[in-house]
Design a protein that fits this description.
Shape: elongated
Distance between the termini: 43 Å
Strand content: 15-25%
Number of strands: 13
Helix content: 25-40%
Strand order of the largest sheet: 3-2-1-4-5-6-7
């Protein structure tokens, strides 16, 4: 009896050496799938043009152990690269191609790559693969021109869909009610160095040893750092609390720093609010989460959160807003607290309640237990059977 070969899977999207949560997810997914399949990564030669990227660099310095070196062929703005990327995909004769989607800006590049791949396969007389969209979201957090027509176009050319939350699934089904979709979950980010004692971590960061909350990741308006700044003086009236802000600002930095200064949060020898406003490399992430007792995510809108899954890796409880996906993974009064969005008083009250005697330890135990549910092995156990039951491939509209 012939031995069944491993499926060939091509994963297209941000990957090493690009940085950020979406790239981390692609890298880790490739590692997990690579234990059961032949997984090849196709990523960008240029991801964002400088005009659209407010950060200092798009590249990561920490290396990754991946099944194959990612092919850096796809320029988001150059159709010639789309054709080259499509031919590269066709040469690998994949059974499944997975496009990792998170922003409508990349839809034209994905469509061009897909057309080129299918054209090359047809010319070679080879069977087309299943085309899967891995939807981190359907609608971006920030407004983007032509989102609706671009997403209808992209969703229309795929055979199957993967999502990580009910919210994203509903957005998909609103566009394509008959979509074949697997709704799964965001696994923990287990890619960082292990935690160290909080006192040691605080000392390494130059912080006093006192109750500490962490706001982590890229700072954008929808993540609600301004709400946390407003809540901090209210909470400090009852708890000697400090907040760490660790992450690169993409907007609002001047306004937030000014407001924090006006509230007296950044003055003195031991300020209540400390900014570490650079991208935090992987080998330093453990310092910030180790230093924290609780992670605050006062988001105004949310899709599956890499910050939450990083907090779970470190066993840290969270204070999150009641936005469906966050409340789903952080059960209230079990792994943290859930508060209404845009409610400064409720956020301040949750910070105070968290630091009552015995509560940090109880909620930390709950967070550790909750995090154990979200393993990469469990995701792959759902994903592979779904991909192996391949439907008839769709045609690309002209």
């Amino acid at each position: 009896m012939p031995v069944a070969r491993s499926p060939r899977i091509a994963l297209i999207g941000p990957a090493w050496p690009f940085r950020g949560g979406i790239a981390h997810f692609s890298n880790r997914l490739a590692q997990a799938l690579g234990e059961h399949a032949d997984v090849r990564l196709l990523t960008f030669s240029r991801q964002y043009p400088k005009l659209l990227f407010p950060g200092k660099t798009q590249l990561e310095t920490t290396p990754w152990a991946l099944p194959h070196e990612p092919a850096r062929l796809l320029d988001s703005l150059d159709p010639r690269s789309w054709r080259k990327a499509g031919r590269w995909l066709a040469d690998g004769r994949p059974d499944v191609v997975v496009f990792v989607h998170w922003l409508p800006f990349f839809v034209p590049a994905y469509l061009g790559t897909l057309r080129a791949m299918r054209k090359a396969l047809k010319k070679a007389g080879a069977a087309p693969p299943e085309v899967v969209l891995f939807l981190h979201n359907v609608r971006p957090h920030n407004r983007f021109p032509l989102t609706d027509p671009l997403m209808r176009r992209l969703i229309g050319v795929a055979d199957s869909y993967l999502t990580l939350s009910e919210h994203v699934t509903k957005d998909l089904l609103a566009i394509k009610p008959e979509a074949r979709v697997l709704e799964s979950f965001h696994p923990i980010y287990d890619i960082f160095e292990p935690p160290i004692p909080p006192k040691e971590a605080r000392a390494k960061l130059g912080l006093p040893d006192r109750p500490t909350a962490l706001f982590f990741g890229y700072v954008r308006h929808y993540k609600g750092l301004d709400l946390l700044v407003e809540a901090l003086p209210l909470a400090r009236a009852k708890v000697d609390l400090q907040v760490i802000v660790a992450g690169e600002f993409y907007d609002d930095e001047e306004a937030i720093r000014k407001r924090a200064a006006d509230l007296g949060l950044t003055s003195g020898d031991t300020p209540a609010l400390r900014f570490f406003s650079d991208y935090i490399p992987n080998d330093e992430v453990h310092l910030y989460f180790s230093a924290a007792d609780v992670v605050a995510q006062p988001y105004r809108s949310a899709t599956p959160s890499g910050v939450a899954q990083t907090a779970f890796f470190f066993g840290k409880p969270m204070i999150v807003t009641d936005l469906g996906v966050l409340a789903e993974v952080v059960p209230d009064d079990v792994a943290g607290y859930v508060v209404p969005p845009n409610d400064v008083d409720a956020l301040a009250d949750a910070l105070v309640r968290f630091f009552r005697k015995g509560t940090p330890e109880r909620l930390a135990a709950g967070a550790a237990a909750q995090g154990r549910k979200y393993s990469w092995d469990a995701l792959v156990a759902q994903l592979l059977p779904f991909l192996e039951k391949r439907p008839a491939p769709a045609e690309v509209p002209g």
